[in-house]
Amino acid sequence: MYYTMFTDQGCREYNEDNYGMEIHGESRCFVLADGLGGHGGGDVASEAAVTAVCKIFRSEGYTDTFFEKACQTAQEAILAEQEKANNYNGMKTTLVILVLADGFAYYAHVGDSRLYFLNEGHIKERTYDHSVPQMLALSKEIKEKEIRHHPDRSKLLRVLGVKDDSPKCDVSKPIKLRGNLSFLLCSDGFWELVEDKDIETTNRAAADTEEWMDTLSAMVRTNGEGVDMDNYSAIAVWVEDGDTTIENREDIRKKEAFKVEFEEPGIPNSVKRKNKKKLKLEKKKNKKNKKIKDENDTETLVEEDSETLCERSLGTDTLEEDETVIETNDSSLE
Question: DSSP readout, 226-265?
Fold first, then answer.
């Protein structure tokens, strides 16, 4: 089993995303939460939820009632923090949990933080968001691909931290750990800026979870250029069942000859990107009766232009009322 954990606060002043990994015997539990409410609210709620879930798993491991107990305990932990801070409206969170135990993968979620399940580099399942546009997509009023840019995308129908409300986590069917399987847990700030096909292609092109995460997070930054980016976080997990190994992925890469091309904002390392930026800068300069003289000047200006990475707002998660960190680890599940 291999995993990499990543978070970045994006263009926000504070990071309200939180994640964790806990061990019980040979089982593993991965947790990711995206808080709502701003500093002193969302960050507290997401941390309380992740801590509560990890604590239960560490002491009890996975059981048939684990998700029910985990969500209820996380809810109680958040309500306790609300009571302490006298903040009942601005302290809520989404939650997604993945457990690997006894040869199976189990997962559950609440809110719009997602889990993607891939088999041999192809998405087989993903969680459905508890959001307004997801409901519209399920009722065929909009297409799935329209969720990412829907004006109500950030309006959530279900989260943890609503007083006098019993938490409702959706629990998915268990998955037998057989073959080259991958799981991606991510907050909406992450998945809204990468397409499903990019998740698949980068998975098949990557040599390990760290490379997969590096590529995806770079795509998020690229696609978020000029946007007031939300916090974005993810956990990448790869599992082999013993008959297959991590080396098999190299065969997949060679056989299918995948090549992932993308550019990071502010890094003029591609002729195509330089030319595109150069034309853009020339148009601006022509208005001021100026010209770009040489390539070095262009590179400097490209880097300056990239400072507009955090301009336009995508909005933040609300209820329908309403320092980059990378951790990586490799281990084996016997």
Answer: TEEPPPEEEEEEEE--SSS-TTHHHHHHHHHT-------T
